[in-house]
Specification:
- The strands form four sheets. Strands 3-2-1-4-5-6-11 form a seven-stranded parallel beta sheet, with helices on both faces. A two-stranded parallel sheet has the order 7-10.
- The protein is α/β, with parallel strands linked by helices.
- The longest helix is centred in the first third of the chain and has 22 residues.
- α3 packs parallel to α4.
- Helix content is 44%, strand content 14%.
Length: 344
């Protein structure tokens, strides 16, 4: 089939677009810069590039012409320096443009990428698709606005599916690099008690789940959380990273209040000048916001079955970082597996 993927120059969108192409689908990608490195990688995979921005209605309309499925992945993530208006223009306004294009062209199905972040700090463990919304920062609030807009369109007749991914990781992603590098060097600071829950989804498993959202006959009208099996505490996650990188997990847990105070001060000083603060509150909340979710609905409704354990995924990620020269050499597969056997 012919598929439009928005956000294809990003980590998840790029992996999804290339997997659709590998499966024989005709893939179109809406990209802001066709000459950029990630865009050239898409073109090399046989993906047709349409220049445009998700905020531009005409560009989205052009890219969606003749497609049977839209995979809407484009979003602005937690990047410091953007105004609140920009977050809403991309994460909510972009959804409006996708809906309009889908309706105008009679697209058979639209899949919308939301985030488990719309649930914020979860009090119920594990949380699920019907757990209360508790969006905190501007990223979460703008994503929730986009999801609500999309759901209203589905209720009005759009053939759509919503999925909320957990934290995405794997080879190709750089968002966790600071953690891996810091732990390997024995310089990763741990704030809080380390018992906050953390939920991830490996990139290959996520892509499989997204494609199921776009093809499963019973998916239309549904919302699915796509996450790995089980969750982990931050202490245990950092311990896994230490094993995978040959590093050392922190032994000291620092209190949160000095970190949050410093982050708020940085934001207060930098924001009037349009400067990206070196430390901001959204990143600090990594240490204190619990994320623990169930993928039962996706398992039962889509046949979603994650294949990569967190331990395996962390090692693959560390090995890729080492191959790229982003961290020092990591333990061999045999050494890592031997460590797993000992701990068992």
């Amino acid at each position: 089939m012919k598929v439009l993927v928005t956000g294809a120059t990003g980590f998840a969108g790029g992996a999804l677009a290339k997997e659709h192409a590998r499966r024989g689908d005709e893939v179109v990608a809406l990209v802001r810069d066709p000459e950029g490195g990630n865009a050239k990688g898409l073109a090399a995979a046989g993906i047709r590039l349409v220049k445009g921005d998700i905020r531009e209605s005409d560009a989205v309309m052009q890219a969606a012409e003749g497609v049977e499925l839209i995979q809407h992945i484009a979003a602005v993530y937690r990047t410091a320096g953007h105004t609140d208006d920009y977050y809403h223009a991309v994460n909510d306004g972009g959804v409006a443009n996708v809906i309009e294009a889908a309706q105008r062209h009679g697209v058979g199905r639209v899949v919308h990428c939301s985030t488990i972040g719309v649930h914020g700090h979860v009090k119920e463990v594990p949380a699920h698709e019907d757990s209360p919304f508790n969006a905190g920062d501007i990223y979460q609030r703008s994503k929730l606005a986009g999801e609500n807009r999309f759901r209203a369109a589905v209720e009005a007749g759009l053939r759509g599916v919503i999925f909320r991914p957990a934290a995405i990781y794997g080879p190709g992603d750089l968002r966790l690099l600071k953690i891996f590098r810091g732990v390997q060097r024995g310089r990763f600071p741990m704030f809080g008690n380390g018992q906050t829950t953390y939920q991830l989804v490996y990139i290959d498993d996520l892509v499989d789940g997204i494609i199921r959202c776009g093809t499963h006959p019973d998916a239309v009208g549904q919302t699915f959380i796509l996450c790995g099996d089980g969750w982990i505490t931050l202490d245990d996650f950092v311990g896994l990273v230490a094993e995978a990188t040959g590093g050392r997990a922190p032994r000291v847990h620092w209190p949160m209040w000095p970190l949050l105070t410093a982050a708020r001060a940085c934001e207060l000083v930098c924001k009037p000048f349009g400067i990206a603060p070196p430390l901001h509150v959204r990143r600090c909340e990594f240490y204190v916001k619990s994320r623990a979710f169930s993928n039962e609905r996706a398992r039962n409704g889509l046949g979603f079955a994650p294949q990569v354990s967190m331990r395996e995924g962390v090692y693959r990620t560390a090995a890729w970082y080492a191959e790229q020269g982003l961290v020092s050499p990591v333990p061999s597969r045999a050494e890592f597996d031997a460590g797993a056997a000992e701990s068992a």
